[in-house]
């Protein structure tokens, strides 16, 4: 019992310096970031030497700790950790670093960092989003057909695209995964364009619906800057199509 009382007493003393308010004897919450910073700065110098001073303490602590030097020494040695909920707003959000194969020309091919640098284009009765779960990952790009097909969709389809820096004359493998929610004659297809030239299509029924499927396109770059574009064309009023894990790497 004596040990418990000693710990509780130390907690109370720590609270007089670090907490926004005095709390119970069994807990000490560092609930005031400003007070915590000021107290931490005081303790950093106060505990470096033997102190007998009875003045110069933080103003907000004097009423709780008094002027006994032993109380301040104990409080400084028992300081709590500032609550993560209070420090989260002041902690910079880590920069998203999506994993990617070596020599991959595609940025954010798994859509783990949102949309950019991809650019999405919606047309009448279509919508795009980044949804979870993706293909064995957190997220994927999702296309939704929300109503009757736009009469101009064949010539001006909904799409998502990104500019790549390649080496002209080099052979590349484009890999990506597709998901169709159903296999019907109206579900449509995903078309792949390189610099606005069609190179590949995958139909809703080509590989089966309801799961992500592999796609491979082999091509030779005709320019250093290449626009990779996925077009979505469907007559199904409520179609859901996804793409994920896009990569473009040299064949050798």
Structural commentary:
With 252 residues, this protein is of the alpha+beta class. It is 20% helix and 29% strand. It contains five helices and ten strands, in the order H-H-H-H-H-E-E-E-E-E-E-E-E-E-E. Helix 1 (2-18) runs antiparallel to helix 3 (59-65) and helix 2 crosses helix 4 (69-77). It is elongated.
First-to-last CA distance = 72 Å
Q: What structural class is derived from the secondary structure elements?
A: alpha+beta
Radius of gyration: 30 Å
Number of strands: 10
Largest sheet: 5 strands, antiparallel
Question: Going across the major beta sheet, what is the strand order?
Answer: 1-4-9-6-7
Helix tally equals: 5
Q: What level of helicity do the residues show?
A: 10-25%
Mean pLDDT: 78
Mass-distribution shape = elongated
Provide the low-confidence segments as ranges. 1-15, 18-37, 81-94
Question: Helices and strands, in N-to-C order?
Answer: HHHHHEEEEEEEEEE
Taken as a percent bin, the fraction of beta residues is 25-35%
Question: What is the quaternary state of this protein?
Answer: single chain
Task: Compile the SSE list and pairings.
Layout: H1 2-18, H2 33-46, H3 59-65, H4 69-77, H5 84-87, E1 119-121, E2 126-131, E3 140-145, E4 158-165, E5 171-180, E6 189-194, E7 197-203, E8 213-220, E9 225-233, E10 240-250
Antiparallel strand pairs: 1-4, 2-3, 3-10, 4-9, 5-8, 5-10, 6-7, 6-9
């Amino acid at each position: 019992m004596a040990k418990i009382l000693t710990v509780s007493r130390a907690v109370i003393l720590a609270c007089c310096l670090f907490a926004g308010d005095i709390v119970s004897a069994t807990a000490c919450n560092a609930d005031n970031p400003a007070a915590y910073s000021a107290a931490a700065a005081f303790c950093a110098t106060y505990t470096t030497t033997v102190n007998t001073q009875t003045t110069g303490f933080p103003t907000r602590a004097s009423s709780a700790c008094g002027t006994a030097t032993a109380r301040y020494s104990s409080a400084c040695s028992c300081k709590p950790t500032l609550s993560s909920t209070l420090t989260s707003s002041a902690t910079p959000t880590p920069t998203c670093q999506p994993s990617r194969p070596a020599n991959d020309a595609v940025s954010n091919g798994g859509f783990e960092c949102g949309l950019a640098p991809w650019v999405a284009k919606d047309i009448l009765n279509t919508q795009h989003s980044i949804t979870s779960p993706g293909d064995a990952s957190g997220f994927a790009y999702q296309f939704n057909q929300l109503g009757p097909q736009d009469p101009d969709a064949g010539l001006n389809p909904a799409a998502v695209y990104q500019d790549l820096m390649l080496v002209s004359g080099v052979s590349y493998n484009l890999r990506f995964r597709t998901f169709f929610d159903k296999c019907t004659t109206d579900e449509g297809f995903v078309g792949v364009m390189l610099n606005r030239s069609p190179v590949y299509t995958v139909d809703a029924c080509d590989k089966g619906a309801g799961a992500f499927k592999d796609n491979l396109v082999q091509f030779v770059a005709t320019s250093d800057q290449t626009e990779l574009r996925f077009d979505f064309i469907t007559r199904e009023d409520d179609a859901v199509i996804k793409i994920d894990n896009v990569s473009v790497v040299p064949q050798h």
